[in-house]
Amino acid sequence: MKASLPPLLDFRNLRVMRGAKIALDDFTLRIGADEHVAILGPNGCGKSTFIKTITRECYPVVRAESSMAILGEDDWNVFDLRTRLGVVSNDLMLSCTGDASGRNVVLSGFFSSTAIFPNHEVDPRQRELADAALAELEIAHLAERPVREMSSGEARRVLIARALVHRPRALLFDEPSNSLDLLAQQKLRQTMSALASSGTAIILVTHELADVVPEIQRVVLMSRGRVVADGTKQEILEVERLEALFGVRVEMARRDGHYHLW
Length: 262
Fold this sequence. Notes:
Blueprint: E1 9-18, E2 21-31, E3 36-40, H1 47-54, E4 67-70, H2 78-84, E5 85-88, H3 90-95, H4 102-107, H5 124-136, H6 152-164, E6 170-174, H7 182-197, E7 201-206, E8 218-223, E9 226-232, H8 233-236, H9 239-246, E10 252-255, E11 258-261
Parallel strand pairs: 3-7, 3-8, 5-6, 6-7
Antiparallel strand pairs: 1-2, 1-4, 8-9, 10-11
Helix pairs in contact: 5-6, 6-7
């Protein structure tokens, strides 16, 4: 019998500070190795801190009752972690601008940078993998194009290729549809669906309900640094819950596994 894989994340009773403010408080969340999960919540609920805790940019307060493990390990070299967990974030979107070409942005994933610099030595295998990642996302034509000449949607797809170049166990999407027009949003969501169907675990962090593609079947609601609901998409995505979460009257529609809120 094949041994079961350790959970992707296992956070228990975490408290994370941002300056003098408690950003995550008694935060507990376990995500299985092959799950597709959406983390949904309003701005200021702690979603960014959750992401930065995963990527080891923020660390929890040391407390006897707290523990955190990623892919079964509680101690990581951050560079090794980045080869196992691909991240597509707005911070990267802002950093990967300028003269760097699409291929060089993807290659930068091997060096945990945002471009290829003189101290980086790219070998033929890395270049082959970068071109394969661009081709997989159907953006091989962007290999030589500078990021500054790309649309926001094109640049976001290049960042997804960068995250995929290591063939990670999971992809973490941080508010992926921000700044994208309707066509680019549609293409992004199609890409997330295809990746989920291919076996790559997806963690989606967003406040946009439309980002929750049909392949995501578990939804976690966050408010004030805590998990306030966790369950199946059908159970959690109810108008009353979302009105309480966002503090506003809403209407919701479902169609073919997609949800829309207004």
